[in-house]
Structure formats: structure tokens, C-alpha cells
């Protein structure tokens, strides 16, 4: 049974990992449970996910304070929308009913400011990823989104959350001449989605991006909006899954920002593993920073001081973000980031121990959003700088960036 499997795996851990007997027993028990979960995934686990998903569905109907149905035609859920207001879900209704005001946009763009387009399709708006993507495409066409200078595709986290700071920053950066589209694929909180239901976010991210990018590429080149991609945390996992290589990203987008990517992201991990010799895992440099850069702050985006060609890819990652560094490998393997000098906001005394470090980082993930900006899993203070690096309008200056930052702080983004 499960106990026998645990003993067998424990003995293997003791032999190959050279662990003390007690530690090897713990490793064996954990490994046995994980193995059983993998083996029954298609039967028991899938049913369990459906039950848990249903249990969280009631929260989808509860609105945040101050959320009201928009009147503007450029918003999903408005009277003119193809998507019913009630179907958008809790996070979707907040997304389409908020954002910079006309006066705030005018502070940056002057008289040229226009009302941004925000398109959202909820999990109750359409039944499958394909149907949600097609509905989102129809909404984008209805709102004139493909006539804007910038179109951003956002892959949400868990229950449909979109980071307001990321969207507000982009809209202020371009004076409202933007369209942002996102879809919801689950009722589950992000942590549960990550642990139990990764295939759903991967499918959602791939299908939405494929659908939107195919339409953009069907337009005359001179009439295409600048196509940008954003994903944070689980959303970074979903939207990165739409691409296989940096060349693939460059072929189908005009710039990408991924914040707090989970360690399991295939493309992120392959770039970090093949980083330039001598650069650390927490702040890697890949191919002299020619296409993709990894940064914890605004200054890091300027490094290395070598050419950075467009389209550009940015990974925002803090050394202290447990979401980025958590991996099952921590159970038995010391990672490079604990072999090398510690990152700027990691205690120099932090040390790797078999099993212990895995659980330490696991527990840290539950508190990763309760720390100040610039640390842990909080990237609101640097996302504007990332957008400036990836998609600044022509002639943009540092003074313009500070003006936007002041508006964001006053707005509360």
C-alpha cells in the first residue's frame, strides 16, 4: 500500500540522497503521496478539482465595494457589450469598472488622451477556452480595439484577477490609446489553481494568445496595433505556455512583460539554466541581454549595458520571491541561488537543508504578498518601468515616467 511505497522511496532517498534515516522517511512519505496523486490525476484528482471549483463559485457573484456597471461602449459588460455584465465574475466586473480617469490620463497625454478599451470574458460568459477567445475577439472588434496603437493580452491568475497597476501603467503610458483583453478560466484562488489545475491556465493562455495574434497578423501591417503580452504569477505560466522559444515570441508579439514567473515555467527555466557564465541564478544574463532581461528593479532593466533589440522580453523576479524559486527539487537538491552569493533581499544566513528548505519556501509562498513592494511576490513598483523598457512611445523621457508614477500613486495603483 501507500505505506510500503513510502518505505521503498525512503530507502531510495537514503541511498541516493545520502540522507539520515528520519529525513529519508519524510521524503519517502511526501514522494509517495505525490506519486499517487499523479497516477490518479485523471480520475480522482480531476473530480476533486471540479468539486473544489464549484465550492469557490459562490464568491464569483460577490462584488468588490464601489464596483458599478460601466456605461462606456469600450468596456465589456456595458449595455452595448456582447458579454453580459453578470457573467464577468467578481474580478472581471472590477477590471472593467476601474482604471485611470479622463483627468488622470490628460495629465500625461494632454488633449490627446482617449478612453481606454477594456475587454473581459468570464468563465460564465462561454463554456470553453476556444469559445471565450472567440467572444473576446468579437468584443475587441466591436470596441475598435484593433484601431488602437497598443493591444495587450493579459492571462489572469486563478479566479480571474488582473493586476490593476500593470494595466493602469500601460494606459497612462499611451494616453489611453490602448486596448487590454483578459479572460477568466477558473473559480479557484491562484494557489489552488497552481497546485491542482495547471492544464487549464496553460490552455487558456495559449488559446487566447493564438486567437488574438492570428487576427492581428491577418491585418495589413500598417494597420496593426502593437501587440503586447502580460502575465503575473500563474498568469505568467499561462501566457508563457503559448510560446516555445524567444524566436517564437519575437515572431508573434511586439513585447512581453512576465512578473513573478513560477519556477516551473519551461521557457524561463531554460533561459536561466543557459545563462551567461558568471551570472547568478537570481539575476541571470542571457545572451548578453540581447532580447530577454531579468530584473528586480528599474536599474536592473538597464543591465547589461549592451544592445537590447526589439521586441523585448522582461522577466520581473525578486530574489526573495518564493513563487519564483519554489520547486520540488528543493527536497533533495541545493539550488544555485543557495550556492551563489544571496540575492539583494535574501538573508546571507539562509542555507539549504534537505527537506527543510522545501517546506520553508513552501510556507513563504503563503505570505509572499504581505511584504512591501519591491520584495517577495509584489511587483507593482516596477511594472511601469518594465512597460517603459518594452513599449515606451517615441520620444518618451524619464520625466514622463515620473509624471506617470505620480499619477499612479495618487490613483492608488
Describe this structure in words.
The chain has about 425 residues and is α/β, with parallel strands linked by helices. The chain has a domain of about 280 residues. A 7-stranded parallel sheet has the order 1-3-2-4-5-7-6, with helices on both faces. Helix 7 links the parallel strand 2 and strand 3. The longest helix has 21 residues.
What is the overall pLDDT average? 90
Tell me the number of strands. 7
Strand content: 5-15%
| Run of helices and strands | HHHHHEHEHEHHEHHEHEEHHHH
Tell the overall outline.
Answer: globular
Helix content: 40-55%
What's the Cα radius of gyration?
A: 22 Å
Pick out the low-confidence regions: none
Describe the main β-sheet briefly: 7 strands, parallel
Query: What structural category do the secondary elements indicate?
Result: alpha/beta
**Span of the ends, CA to CA:** 52 Å
Q: How many helical stretches?
A: 16
Strand order across the largest sheet: 1-3-2-4-5-7-6
In terms of topology, how is this protein built?
Elements: H1 2-17, H2 21-39, H3 41-56, H4 89-97, H5 102-109, E1 117-121, H6 129-143, E2 150-155, H7 164-173, E3 178-183, H8 190-196, H9 198-218, E4 226-232, H10 234-240, H11 246-252, E5 256-259, H12 266-273, E6 292-295, E7 313-316, H13 322-325, H14 356-366, H15 383-391, H16 398-411
Parallel strand pairs: 1-3, 2-3, 2-4, 4-5, 5-7, 6-7
Amino acid at each position: 500500500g501507500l505505506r510500503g511505497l513510502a518505505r521503498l522511496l525512503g530507502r531510495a532517498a537514503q541511498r541516493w540522497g545520502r540522507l539520515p534515516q528520519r529525513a529519508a522517511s519524510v521524503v519517502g512519505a511526501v514522494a509517495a503521496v505525490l506519486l499517487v496523486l499523479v497516477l490518479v490525476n485523471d480520475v480522482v484528482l480531476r473530480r476533486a478539482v471540479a468539486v473544489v471549483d464549484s465550492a469557490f463559485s459562490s464568491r464569483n457573484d460577490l462584488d468588490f465595494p464601489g464596483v458599478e456597471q460601466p456605461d462606456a461602449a469600450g468596456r465589456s459588460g456595458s449595455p452595448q457589450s456582447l458579454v453580459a455584465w453578470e457573467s464577468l465574475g467578481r474580478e472581471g466586473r472590477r477590471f472593467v469598472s476601474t482604471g485611470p480617469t479622463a483627468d488622470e490620463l490628460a495629465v500625461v497625454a494632454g488633449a490627446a488622451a482617449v478612453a481606454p478599451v477594456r475587454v473581459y470574458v468570464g468563465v460564465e460568459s462561454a463554456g470553453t477556452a476556444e469559445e471565450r477567445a472567440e467572444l473576446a475577439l468579437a468584443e475587441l472588434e466591436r470596441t475598435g480595439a484593433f484601431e488602437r496603437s497598443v493591444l495587450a493580452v493579459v492571462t489572469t491568475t486563478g479566479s480571474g484577477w488582473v493586476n490593476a497597476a500593470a494595466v493602469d501603467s500601460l494606459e497612462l503610458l499611451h494616453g489611453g490609446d490602448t486596448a487590454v483583453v483578459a479572460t477568466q478560466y477558473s473559480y479557484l484562488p491562484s494557489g489552488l489553481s497552481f497546485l491542482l489545475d495547471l492544464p487549464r491556465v496553460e490552455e487558456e493562455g495559449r488559446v487566447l494568445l493564438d486567437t488574438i495574434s492570428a487576427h492581428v497578423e491577418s491585418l495589413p501591417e500598417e494597420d496593426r496595433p502593437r501587440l503586447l503580452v502580460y502575465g503575473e504569477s500563474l498568469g505568467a505560466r499561462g501566457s508563457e505556455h503559448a510560446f516555445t522559444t524567444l524566436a517564437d515570441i519575437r515572431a508573434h508579439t511586439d513585447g512581453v512583460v512576465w512578473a513573478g514567473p513560477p519556477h516551473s515555467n519551461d521557457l524561463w527555466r531554460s533561459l536561466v539554466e543557459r545563462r551567461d557564465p558568471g551570472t547568478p541564478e537570481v539575476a541571470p544574463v542571457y545572451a548578453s541581454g540581447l532580447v530577454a532581461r531579468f530584473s528586480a528593479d528599474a536599474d536592473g532593466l538597464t543591465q547589461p549595458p549592451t544592445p537590447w533589440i526589439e521586441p523585448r522580453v522582461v522577466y520581473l523576479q525578486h530574489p526573495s520571491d518564493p513563487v519564483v524559486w519554489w520547486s520540488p527539487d528543493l527536497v533533495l537538491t541545493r539550488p544555485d541561488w543557495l550556492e551563489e552569493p544571496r540575492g539583494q533581499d535574501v538573508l546571507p544566513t539562509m542555507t539549504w537543508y534537505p527537506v527543510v528548505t522545501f517546506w520553508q519556501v513552501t510556507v513563504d509562498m503563503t505570505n509572499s504578498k504581505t511584504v512591501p513592494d519591491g520584495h517577495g511576490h509584489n511587483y507593482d513598483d516596477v511594472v511601469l518601468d518594465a512597460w517603459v523598457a518594452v513599449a515606451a512611445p517615441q520620444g518618451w523621457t524619464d520625466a514622463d515616467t515620473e509624471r506617470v508614477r505620480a499619477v499612479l500613486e495618487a490613483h492608488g495603483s
